[in-house]
Amino acid sequence: MLSYFIRRLPTAALTVILTSVVVFLLVGLLPGSPASVILGEQADPAAVAALEERMGLDRPLLWQYTDWARGLITGDLGASYVSGAPIAETLGVAAGATVELALASLVVTAVTGAAFGIAAATVRRRVPQALLRGASALIFGVPEYVLGILLILAFAITVRLLPAGGREPLLTDPEIGIQYLAMPAIALGLHSGVVVGRFLETELRGQLEEEYLDTAHAKGVSARRVLWRHALPNALPPVITVLGVRVGHLLGGAVVIEAVFAWPGLGQVLANAVANHDYLIIQDLVVYFVVVFIAVQLVSDLIHASLDPRVRLDGEA
What 3-state class would DSSP assign to 86? Predict the structure, then answer.
């Protein structure tokens, strides 16, 4: 397993480097200049040029990229072009909120996926099967932000059970924090839960049709034991990989969901940075999102291998 991890590192590093180059070049093509945003659209061109020189934006792109990449590696991210606040401090504060939301959404995804996948694979009656299919199709077809708005209308305006937006850290006040976290986590995680559930259903159905389970039934093993001790463990490895892929979806969806629920996370920071042409923050966030996604994929592959003895990480047949 260690050899597999070491073999994956060069590919992961190359992916991050190429991503950083592409992001740097694409962000540089965005209309507008941070200097013109700071000074205003009516600012004198000479003043804009002077500010760009002080900010280092007049230097060759290669030198700009080198300085920025060095800051990414060392953690010295500099200051925001617009607000002047330290970027590392801004991202650090917002990262806690996003991690909290992402973990809660991942729990919703896992619980929903397990419940739907197991039920869809084991329930035989037509009416419950039709209800499961209809519910999953409805959830899958509704975008996260629409689901978030519907949750706000239902539980914050009509019933007035949960707050419509904002955040209270769970570590500060768990009882209040869970009330703020519930709707964003459900809105973000439910869609991924249905996707994971469909994969789990397919894998479970395949396992339940295997001959070794027929032998277990013939020996008098109960259906519940066959499901939980034999079929489900063998169905999990590929589902774990799918769950890892959905983490990237959760990170992308967090940008919209945080806006809907006024959640003060990295999504809000990224949206504000795009609106204000704060190029450094945009570049930093996109690259860090890619790094997190690659790391999660690597971890999910390792978990997959640990659960499935047929997978040979060292390349042996």
Answer: strand
